[in-house]
């Protein structure tokens, strides 16, 4: 969720290709999602996705006047699981292409059945 007047909304409109990354250094797991984003202003969807943690960013709740969603359609995902090397080892392997004790998988969504909600 975001404010519809946030600069990232303009950035997405100008270039909807985005990358979403997640890293869990304590477990040495890393995920990178190549995606296409779009801004959605669906009040029912916002209310359906609302949870109490969002009150910290949007104190007016789901009734916030300029609230919008960022929808991300994933096209490709990559996953790395590094064993006993920590963040430095994971980053080093990305640049040196060393693969000792590393699991890596790349998934292209066209290879899988699409699920819509």
From TrEMBL:
Classification via Pfam families: Pyrid_ox_like
Family annotation (InterPro entries): Split_barrel_FMN-bd, Stress-Dev_Protein, YdaG_split_barrel_FMN-bd
Domain General stress protein FMN-binding split barrel residue range list: 1-92
Recorded coiled-coil stretches: none
Transmembrane domains' residue ranges: none
Protein's recorded name: General stress protein FMN-binding split barrel domain-containing protein
């Amino acid at each position: 969720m975001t404010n519809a007047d946030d600069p990232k909304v303009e950035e997405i409109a100008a270039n909807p290709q985005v990358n979403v990354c997640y890293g869990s250094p304590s477990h040495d797991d890393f995920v990178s999602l190549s995606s296409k984003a779009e801004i959605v202003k669906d009040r029912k969807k916002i209310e359906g996705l609302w949870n109490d943690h969002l009150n910290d960013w949007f104190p007016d709740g789901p009734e916030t006047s300029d609230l919008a969603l960022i929808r991300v359609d994933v096209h490709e995902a990559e996953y790395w699981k590094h064993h006993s090397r920590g963040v430095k080892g994971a980053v080093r392997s990305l640049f040196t292409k060393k693969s000792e004790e590393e699991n890596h998988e790349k998934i292209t969504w066209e290879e899988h059945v699409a699920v819509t909600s």
